[in-house]
Amino acid sequence: MARFMAVAISDTHDDTFLDRFKALGWYLDDLVLYPINRMTRARRKAAWIASAPSLTKRIAEYRPQAIVSLLKGMKTVVEDAANASGCRAPVYSVALPGMGHQARSSAEMAALFPLLPRA
């Protein structure tokens, strides 16, 4: 995903992917601030829900103009956190670029890039 996005945002001239990302006015944040990939699906979903209040606070601080969830399954939790923060920005979701979904995720991100605000 980072490789695809780096190419897509290559019109900026900073040295690193995250610098280019920030220069566009974008934030990269995790819903859950600790590793959950080795958990069962049920425990991951419970971690998403438990982490929503923390994300709500961060969204209130960021005041984003758009939000993209990099996992379709957590979009509702992200939308709920955005709404609870008072944020009325659109919330999009794309397929996670793993487990064979790289092409789908890349295509979804490519379609989404023109819709995202830039600083």
Descriptive terms for the model:
119 residues; mainly alpha; two-stranded parallel sheet; 2 strands
The spatial strand order of the largest sheet comes to: 1-2
Strand content: 5-15%
- Low-confidence sequence ranges: none
Let me know the largest β-sheet: 2 strands, parallel
How many domains make up the 3D coordinates? 1
* N-to-C span: 21 Å
Task: Tell me the structural class.
Answer: mainly alpha
Count of DSSP H/I helices = 5
Mean pLDDT, as a whole number? Answer: 85
Total beta strand runs: 2
- In terms of quaternary structure, the protein is single chain
Radius of gyration, CA atoms, in whole angstroms: 14 Å
Shape: globular
The residue fraction in helices comes out at 40-55%
Order of helices and strands: HHHEHEH
Characterize the structure shown.
By secondary structure, this protein is mainly α. It has one domain (2-115). It has five helices and two strands. It has helices spanning 2-8, 17-23, 41-62, 75-85, 102-112; strands at residues 67-69, 91-93. A two-stranded parallel sheet has the order 1-2. Helix 4 (75-85) links the parallel strand 1 (67-69) and strand 2. Helix 3 packs parallel to helix 4 (75-85). The radius of gyration is 14 Å and the shape is globular. The two termini are 21 Å apart. The mean pLDDT is 85.
